[in-house]
Design brief:
The complex is a heterodimer of chains A (338) and B (116).
Chain A: H1 2-22, H2 26-46, H3 50-75, H4 87-104, H5 116-119, H6 121-133, H7 139-147, H8 149-170, H9 184-189, H10 194-216, H11 225-251, H12 254-277, H13 292-323
Helix pairs in contact in A: 1-2, 2-3, 3-11, 3-13, 7-8, 7-13, 8-12, 8-13, 10-11, 11-13, 12-13
Chain B: H1 2-24, H2 28-50, H3 70-101, H4 106-115
Helix pairs in contact in B: 1-2, 2-3
The chains are: A mainly alpha (338), B mainly alpha (116).
């Protein structure tokens, strides 16, 4: 049964991607990319990777589709048809793909318990000893937030840096202060669609509560700072899509959001520094409290909070800057397909 | 063998389709979609490697003894969020290119660069 689900989902993925290759309408491409994200998330659930599925569902099917739609709204909907036939590209792709397929023949079969990845002693250590050492049942959270906390710190900094990069690129002089007539999102959505607005208004509090649950229950079930941050941001983005960017800007202070992005990284780093001061190594939670297990719990909750804050803030910054960008386009005729 | 390696072949197929979009299409947004498909194929590869036959999700429970490998899950979990951050950065660059050139088609941008 599992094998059938696996084969069906993966075949669907290929079908969706082939459709993406053919489509010239970027709106369709963005929608197909959303379906692709959702299928990938379903596939991850079938592969027991519940935490990953959670993240992919909110990122791949939610936020990335949305960002793409915002950009398409500003740059034009149709891809220009390619005049020359891409034979060279096809040859390169087929040769590379053929070599990679040839490479797979040496791989251990899918699901094999004897595969090198499964026999690795680190993995065995995580599965057998993590409950004794960290004291929480979700091994993924143990590894993410404690064993490999330094690695995760790096990733949070990367997200933070991407947020700074987007601020540098998009919050420049082209943005006008009076946003009254800015964009597609502002104009249409929030004046019409009453049913959507009311349903969303009822849903948003639940989405926020769910995000908090995911944030603080990440030790015991699937979840954690990354997922919670994205869900939280999704609620804010939903709100700004339905009620207009102006309203959302009044509710959510931009300067505060930027500050929160930095505070998240600072909180994460500070936990590491406190470990230093208590005589441990960087991000060693055992020394945070008298009892090592309690120290681990505290450390994990704090850094997950830091991750959650940064991810929420950066995602919000990204959306607000994308949607609030006024475009002084040089000429517009090129974007239409022939 | 067909079932045993099917996942990896799909990964290769997705990766190559993504690669094809990147090199054969001129539209920058389409290229970014191709890039994210390429990226997702790597995610699928890692998660497939992590799967153990008959295993369950790596959340410790009293009545299970076989778990799928948690380490690739952690790597991919963070990679997904970093991926969206970098994709967003790419989209931001696309928007700026559109403002500067009035187009996001590679050929038109190239033509304008050659003229000036």
């Amino acid at each position: 049964m599992e094998a059938i689900i696996d084969v069906v989902l993966l075949s669907f993925l290929v079908a969706v991607v082939i459709a993406i290759v053919w489509m010239k309408d970027l709106f369709t491409v963005a929608m197909l990319a959303g379906i692709y994200g959702l299928l990938t998330a379903s596939f991850f659930v079938a592969m027991d990777a519940v935490d990953v599925a959670f993240t992919e569902a909110s990122v791949g099917a939610g936020i990335s589709t949305l960002l793409m739609l915002v950009v398409i709204a500003k740059t034009g909907r149709y891809e220009r048809p390619v005049r020359h036939k891409p034979w060279l590209a096809l040859v390169v792709v087929l040769v590379t793909g053929g070599l990679l397929i040839y490479g797979t023949f040496d791989m251990p079969y899918f699901g094999s318990a004897q595969a090198p990845a499964q026999l690795n002693e680190t993995t065995a250590h995580y599965i057998d000893d993590s409950f004794e050492e960290i004291g929480i049942p979700n091994i993924v959270t143990s590894v993410l937030a404690s064993y490999r906390a330094f690695d995760t710190f790096g990733e949070v900094v990367v997200i933070f840096t991407a947020g700074i990069g987007i601020l540098a690129l998009l919050s420049g002089p082209a943005r006008r202060e009076e946003d009254a007539d800015i964009d597609a999102i502002n104009e249409t959505m929030h004046k019409e669609h009453m049913v959507l607005r009311i349903v969303a208004k009822i849903l948003i509090p639940f989405i926020l509560i769910f995000a908090l649950y995911v944030q603080f229950h990440g030790d015991y079930g699937p979840g954690g700072g990354f997922q919670a941050g994205v869900i939280f941001a999704a609620a804010i983005i939903l709100y700004s899509m339905l009620f207009g960017l102006d309203t959302a800007r009044q509710v959510i202070n931009q300067a505060w959001v930027r500050l929160i992005a930095a505070i998240g990284v600072l909180l994460y780093g500070s936990v590491g520094m406190v470990s230093f001061l208590n005589g441990g190594t960087f991000l060693d939670y055992n020394v945070l409290m008298e009892d090592p297990i309690a120290g681990q719990h505290l450390g994990i909750i704090l850094i997950e909070l830091g991750v959650g804050l940064t991810v929420t803030a950066v995602m919000t910054i990204i959306f607000f800057n994308f949607a609030g960008r006024q475009v002084p386009v040089k000429k517009t005729d090129n974007n239409q397909g022939a | 063998m067909l079932i045993g390696l099917y996942n990896y072949w799909i990964v290769v197929a997705l990766m190559m389709l993504g690669f094809f979009i990147i090199i054969a299409h001129g539209n920058l947004i389409k290229k970014l979609v191709g890039l994210s498909i390429f990226q997702t194929s790597v995610f699928i590869f890692y998660i497939s490697v992590a799967k153990v036959e008959g295993g369950s999700a790596p959340i410790l429970a009293a009545d299970t003894s076989v778990y799928s490998n948690p380490l690739p899950h952690v790597l991919i979990l963070t990679a997904i969020v970093v991926g969206i951050a970098t994709t967003a950065l790419g989209l931001a660059l696309t928007m700026r290119i559109n403002e500067a050139y009035g187009s996001i088609e590679e050929e038109i941008i190239q033509k304008q660069d050659n003229q000036s």
